[in-house]
Write a structure and sequence with these properties.
- This protein is of the alpha/beta class.
- It has one domain: P-loop containing nucleotide triphosphate hydrolases (Rossmann fold), CATH 3.40.50.
- The protein is about 45% helix and about 15% strand.
- The protein contains nine helices and seven strands.
- The protein has a seven-stranded parallel sheet with strand order 3-2-4-1-5-6-7, sandwiched between helices.
- Strand 5, helix 6 and strand 6 form a beta-alpha-beta unit.
- It starts with a strand and ends with a helix.
Length: about 240
């Protein structure tokens, strides 16, 4: 089967593990590759601590909600639409359970694949029991999705990687490189785009920090390119077995 594009669901039952940072990098990675991408921010509420993805990438992000049937239909209809290129969904911790309950109930992953859209779940791993339990549940519920554990290196070494076995379609663990403390003050104030030089220049980033940021971004893009290849290979292997 040949897939037109993918839906990347960035999720974890824990807050502050790097979901929004990864979602931002995904948006800019697709731009860098010359692709069309649309993001959906599933944070809760309208405060400064919520809807962070939309604050960072207002031109590319839609605020979504699943508290009503209308909101659920609007979101999932867009995710399985063949228009609009690749989709990125930043699932806030408060929305984690509800989002995947709905996705399971409506057969989202299977419907996406019927429409030649590859469903990819990027699960931010952490050492707590709730994360391990949630990962196992997703693995059982969504066997047709490319379930991929993501290690945010800012959280420390991956001493618990054995609790998050990779799925056949997702392949190896994806690593989100740690941002140096000197870079974080520049990139953690919205709006900021890694791909938009105008926003980066507006921060007056010193040359040495700019070089370090580009080095970090190259590492992140390499990880995402390898993920694309693993997903493609997994889909090819799956189609050969049919």
């Amino acid at each position: 089967m040949s897939f037109r594009h993918s839906v990347y669901i960035v999720a974890s039952p824990r807050p502050r593990v790097g979901k929004t940072l990864l979602s931002r990098v995904l948006i800019d990675y697709h731009k860098h590759e010359g692709r069309v991408a649309c993001a959906f921010d599933l944070g809760q509420g309208q405060g400064q601590a919520e809807n962070r993805l939309q604050q960072f990438a207002p031109d590319d992000t839609v605020i979504a909600e699943i508290g009503s049937v209308q909101g659920q239909m609007a979101l999932f209809d867009q995710l399985v639409s063949e228009e609009g290129g690749s989709k990125i969904v930043d699932v806030g911790a408060d929305s984690f359970q509800a989002f995947f309950d709905i996705a399971y109930r409506i057969g989202f992953a299977e419907e996406a694949r019927k429409r030649e859209i590859a469903p990819v779940i990027l699960f931010m791993i952490s050492s707590d029991k709730a994360a391990g339990d949630a990962y196992r549940t997703l693995r059982a519920r969504f066997p047709s999705a490319a379930l991929t554990p993501v290690h945010n290196e800012m959280l420390g070494p991956t001493q618990h990687r054995d609790r998050f076995p990779t799925a056949a379609r997702g392949g190896a663990i994806l690593r989100l490189p740690a941002l140096a403390p000197g870079l974080r003050k520049f990139v953690e104030t919205p709006p900021f785009s890694f791909a938009d030089d105008r926003l980066a220049n507006a921060r007056n980033i010193p040359l040495d920090a700019h070089i370090e940021l580009q080095r970090w971004l190259r590492k992140a893009y390499i990880e995402l390119r390898e993920l694309d290849l693993r997903v493609l290979l997994g889909e090819l292997q799956s189609s050969l077995r049919l």
